[in-house]
Amino acid sequence: MTTQVLGEAGREVARVACGLPVDGCEVRVVDERGRTCPAGHVGEIWVRGEHVAAGYWNDPAATRETFGAVTAEGEGGFLRTGDLGYLDDDELVVSGRIKDLIIVRGANYYPNDIEATATDSHAQLAAGGCAAFVDADERLCVVAELRKDATQPLAIEAAIEAAVSETYGLQVERVALVKERTLPRTSSGKIQRSETRRALAADELHVVHVSAGATELQRLLEAADENDGQEILGGFLLGLLAEQLGLPLHRLSRRKSVAALGLDSLALVQLKDRIEAELPIELPAELLFAETTIATLASEIAKRLSRARSGARRGPRRRTRGDSRRRLRRRSCGRSSSASGTRPPTTRGCWRASRGRSIWRRCARASRS
């Protein structure tokens, strides 16, 4: 077992060595110029020996390119494997494939590492069903298979983004969640990253959920502190409201409630949709219909963003035996209350008037005898 340091975050990744080369097999690790790398330095793995084939059938050009490699020191007859790795105490350690290498800001990252981190970020992701790559626009993308019982696509997306960011210091700009066992695979069951990249671009995958990618607003909020973040959110909300109302910004006040601005229910729902399109949160409609000021709404959005980030880092909460006992106690309490003639607590909807409009609000009420 050995370790390799990756990227700007300096994270150490455990690697398992393949062992020593067999007798008659010479292994070299070379850089992009064909120079032999010192021990511990990553390069392309070249091999030569009697066990190596003579070349490709009826393809002399490809044979010269792959089977006729010559080092910078003038040694020839090596086979280019296309694999990246390094030597550790003369043992060979394979870290990835050259064609799949992800390069961000001059640092090398291996897709299999990012895929393992993404898959481990949430319990509702299928094991061994993930592909990480850079698309034609040089955006880091992660495509992951969902388990059949998955019900939290937004939470899963946030978990993947948080895990990759925290581990490697990388921003995942696109997350696509697909049905289980639908990613392109080889006959041996390995994920085909290049085919997955092509199929995602051609919209040929069985996509269940796809992220819109980080918006400019999200990037501003991530770089801001708490106070500046609320100012940015307040300005963002004022801009949306001014656009919908057709009013200049100076006519709007952050201390005025959203419901009092004269927007009808359809316009308020459209406002909710636009907020959720820009930010990775789900906003309750009650916040817009109630007496919530623009400043209070900005504060509530900031809290929900903070909870979404911390929840993504912690991962999904797992049920315990105590949860089952509490559910049983609640059920038994409900039955005993009904038998004694009292009604158990219920959740029901009631109509309330607010500034001349009837709006639907759900209120939890405990009925008493």
* Structural category: alpha+beta
Specify Rg, calculated over alpha carbons.
Answer: 28 Å
How do the strands line up in the largest sheet?
3-4-5-6
Q: Give, in order, the helices and strands.
A: EEEEHEEEEHEEHEHEHHHHHHEE
CATH superfamily label of the largest domain = ANL, C-terminal domain
In the CATH hierarchy, the third-tier topology of the largest domain is known as: GMP Synthetase, Chain A, domain 3
Q: How many DSSP E strands?
A: 14
For the termini, the CA-CA separation is: 68 Å
| Percent range for β-strand residues | 15-25%
Note down, in words, how this protein is organized.
35% of the residues lie in helices and 24% in strands. Helix 2 crosses helix 3, helix 6 (226-245) crosses helix 7 and helix 6 (226-245) packs across helix 9. It has three domains: 2-96, Luciferase, domain 3; 102-210, GMP Synthetase, Chain A, domain 3; 216-314, Non-ribosomal Peptide Synthetase Peptidyl Carrier Protein, Chain A (Orthogonal Bundle), CATH 1.10.1200. A four-stranded antiparallel beta sheet has the order 3-4-5-6. It has a four-stranded mixed beta sheet with strand order 9-10-11-12, with helices on both faces. The chain has helices at 60-67, 111-119, 153-168, 193-201, 216-223, 226-245, 265-278, 286-289, 294-314, 321-339, and strands at residues 2-6, 11-15, 26-30, 43-48, 79-88, 91-97, 102-104, 107-109, 125-134, 140-146, 174-178, 207-210, 346-354, 357-365. The protein is α+β, with helices and mostly antiparallel strands. Strand 13 (346-354) and strand 14 (357-365) form a beta hairpin. It starts with a strand and ends with a strand. It contains ten helices and 14 strands.
